[in-house]
Input
Amino acid sequence: LKYIFWSQVMDNFKVTLENGDNPDVNALVGSDTVTITVPQDWKDQLVVALGLEVAATDWLTLRAGWNYGTNPVPDETSMPVAPAITEQHGSIGATAKWGSLVFDLAWQHAFENSIKVGQSLQTRDLNGSTLSVEMDFVTLGISYDF
Output
């Protein structure tokens, strides 16, 4: 079990652009500096994770895992460029040793999750949209034990 305090770090995203050299843009915003605050309002998250590791032989270790954590991102602040809405992940992996060489291979799957954006606080272009995310990660590691 782990508890992630997202609300303490993902409240607002503030960007300040300074020294703009386009006179038309500067006239539009009233100066050569513009500050934009983008609300995030992420919620804290409880994550439950389970894993199993089995030494199948003296040279092969197998692993499997699953984790679940509620989506911390409110629908109205979701952005397609930061699709952090997945809730369930499954993984399998193995480590094989061949002399001093060690090979690690793992696959993680983030199961599809969808949200419906009503009134977006980010951009009205997202109003009424649906955001769906499903991801796969493959990791290969090769190391040498001295």
Notes: The first strand starts at residue 2 and ends at 4.
